[in-house]
Amino acid sequence: MIIVLDKSATPEQIQQIASKLEESGYQAHPIYGVAKTVIGAVGVPDEEKPGLMEQFEALPFVEKVIIVMAPYKLAAKAYRPEGTVVRVADRVNIGGNHVCIMAGPCTVETREQTLATARAVKEAGAHMLRGGAYKPSTSPYSFQGLGVDGLKILAEARAETGLPVVTEVMDPRNVELVCRYADMLQIGTRNMQNYDLLREVGKTRHPVLLKRGMWARIDEWLMAAEYIMKGGNENVVLCERGIRTFETATRNTLDLSAVPLVKQESHLPVVVDPSQGTGKWSLVTAMSRAAVAAGADGLIIEVHPHPEQAWKDGAQSLTFENFRQLMAEVRAIANAMGKEM
Ligand code: PEP
Ligand code: MN
Question: What is the rounded distance in angstroms from the CA atom of residue 236 to the CA atom of residue 205?
């Protein structure tokens, strides 16, 4: 909140405002300019601002009061300063003192490929299964996913391994269908600003993994979360998956500074996708370690029985053996951070 004083305001009057703010537990930061003095009021909760504004504007020596509100409210840190833990399928926590590992193929290709991968990641200690049944593709001629048949394979893999499933939903008309098969809805990078889709998943109570748009600023990403939460669904987990920059050596530029920054701004858990983030399997383990060291609440990792044969994203997919190695290295970092995994 910024209080702009009239030119004629005396030092006593400036003090009167400062005292009023301080008595209420807020900070007053007067800035003495040549033409006028302004007072920055820090720490005033959004809901107190209109009331205080009215009181201050009633004073003859106050020219105007400007309210500065965080554009997001439900996603803002102040809404739940202790942080949010999102619970998936009544058995997996994302947030708090736990590092959650979601792993599986980029795409559900066959029953065998998905079941084999689910078993392998479960054995290596993963907590959730990932896999796309609806695939966003740059080209309309490339594979678009198995659709409902893919959802059924994922559900079968869950029944066998006990791993809750996270999978992408692209079309608002499919939200109900995907909810029937999956435990968590993934909003892909290309749909982060598909507001109709965000509103639709906001009507459900299914946990949502909201990927950052590849061109989205952090405030835009949090506003997308706000859309979902405004509908009453507060089970939102943010996912940093890399953004587009001038660099072409990696598929995207994985913005790990987003992890601690979002944690300052928001109470929502944050996970990292180093697979889409780098596009190269050989970089995935190092960036996974770094993500957890930066405070990420989890990782989402692409794993394939034969990456060289994968229909999609083989170059960034780990073999079972490489995934086991990743788990061992990330667990050491998690433990060093005082977290369990
Ligand atoms: C994926 O997880 O396979 C995927 C398509 O992710 P993104 O939306 O981040 O590109
Ligand atoms: Mn992928």
Answer: 10
Mean pLDDT of the residues in the chain? 95
Domains of the chain: 2-67 (3.30.70.1140), 86-336 (3.20.20.70)
**What DSSP element (H or E) covers 275?**
helix 274-278
Buried b / exposed e along 152-170 (16+ C-beta atoms within 10 A)? ebbbebbeebebbbbbbbb
pTM score, two decimals?
0.85
Cα separation, 18 vs 35, in Å, equals 19
Q: 257-263 long-range CB contacts below 8 Å, 24 or more apart?
A: 257/294, 258/212, 258/218, 259/291, 259/294, 259/295, 259/296, 260/294, 260/295, 261/218, 262/218, 262/221, 262/222, 262/238, 263/295
305: number of Cβ within 10 Å? 18
**Among the atoms of ligand 1, which is closest to the Cα of residue 130?**
2
C-alpha 198 – ligand 1 centre gap (Å): 16
Residues 173-228 have pLDDT tens digits of 999 999 999 999 999 999 999 999 999 999 999 999 999 999 999 999 999 999 99
d(CA 239, CA 128): 15
- Say how far apart CA 148 and CA 49 lie, in whole Å: 49
Å from CA of 192 to ligand 2 middle = 16
Ligand sitting nearest the alpha carbon of 315 = 2
